[in-house]
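Hey, I was hoping to borrow your eyes for a little while. No rush at all, and the record is pasted right below:
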Amino acid sequence: MAMNKIEIYDTTLRDGAQSEDISFSVEDKLRITEKLDELGVHYIEGGWPGSNPRDIEYFKKARKLKLKNSQLVAFGSTHHPRKRAAGDETLKGLVESGVSAVTIFGKTWDFHVTEALKVPLEKNLDVIHDSVAYLKKHVATVFFDAEHFFDGYIHNPEYAAKCLSAAEAGGADCLVLCDTNGGTMTSAIAGIVKKIRKGHGTQLGIHAHNDGDCAVANSIAAVGAGAVQVQGTINGLGERCGNANLVSIIPNLQLKLGMKCIMPEQLRKLRDVSRFVNEIGNIRHFKRQPFTGDSAFAHKAGIHVSAIRRRPETYEHIRPDLVGNSQRVLVSDLAGRANILRKAEEFGLKIDGDSAQLQAIVTSLKDLENLGFQFEGAEASFELLMKKELGLHRRFFDLIGFRVIIEKRKEGEEPLSEATIMLKVGGHIEHTAATGNGPVNALDNALRKALENFYPQLKDVRLLDYKVRVLTAGKGTTARVRVLIESGDHEHRWGTVGVSENIIEASYQALVDSIEYKLLQEEQL
């Protein structure tokens, strides 16, 4: 039986970035873009290129990414009611973003048209049509997000349908029905989508918010009623209560309903991508997240453990490896080997599945995770860990000692940071100092200053991002912290991690891993 194909449209970088406590840098967004491409989503909404300098810079840099599976999408609104489409700055910014697909949202609830836009209902229809028609002259694909569509349809179905017809007449490639306030019930979603499906020839999409905790169910119901595009975010990020969670939607559609979303090998990357986005966003992983959480396939009760050892399907609704997860028996954790073997394959490393080396890696990994290390978002540190256990790592230098001084001379003046470091490189002792914008930057500058005479390729390395996570809640300033550092050169970016009660020591660990990773990669070229 042929599988129905569903388009997956990810808006983590735009709608997801509107989450409270989330702020993605340009480099964050570029790294997440590459991960989403690996996952195989069809469309990646990068942001609103005319709304802020960060998104403008993102689209400039994103053009240089070599995406294999995904198409970048720019987001914006219909043109200003007092302007024509050709003279509207928002539409101009979408065209100038350089992408071949754009999404614009327009009002479809008459209440919003009269009270928010303050224009006649017919004028709004002209705005929708003209905006879509203008964009279709300049870009290949135009999606129309029908904002507040379900609320609008419930209050005035005739007008909401006219808004869709206006976008359709303008040439929209997909009419995306939005539950913008997130409060529509699943049965209503399904019924309305079925009615719209009968009245419009253009393909339909669904964009659900989670204010009623129904976004995943609403998205799946919409697909069952005829929608062929699903919009959502990784881990359900989004303003207020979040957007529809693609981490749940994709496996439900593909594994439960037999609909083709992404390739099976891409689906196995789902957990990695879920955790990667959380790490980059500097938010805690939700242990009980369906499919990808640590507890999703964890078993503790004696009866359950006895049963799943014989037949896992007795207490597991799918095989965990289908989504990149693994079965866990609490107290004695049986997970790890398969994931490590798969990572070794990605890194081009050969490990025998029954070897003592593999067991040593598993043991080291568990010991480090117990201390607070996490390697999602720090793949370079994990690759170094594996190479150390396999005997493929070599030390490029030895630390003799370092010192970091922070001096504040008076109130209202920025403190001064200076780092002094002494290293042994081969038979040579190098002793140097450097200042920086804060203690970590000073230490980074001193470390690379000491090494660049021996390894000039380090001049290309830049510290791109730096994040700190407190691991031991309730201990105040004595808490253990995890430092995640992103580094890059002209071609690549990589993440490293360090953990300690001392934030400078944790930072040093991550900095050293970053440098060693770069040098090892250079040796392989």
The first strand starts at residue 7 and ends at 10.
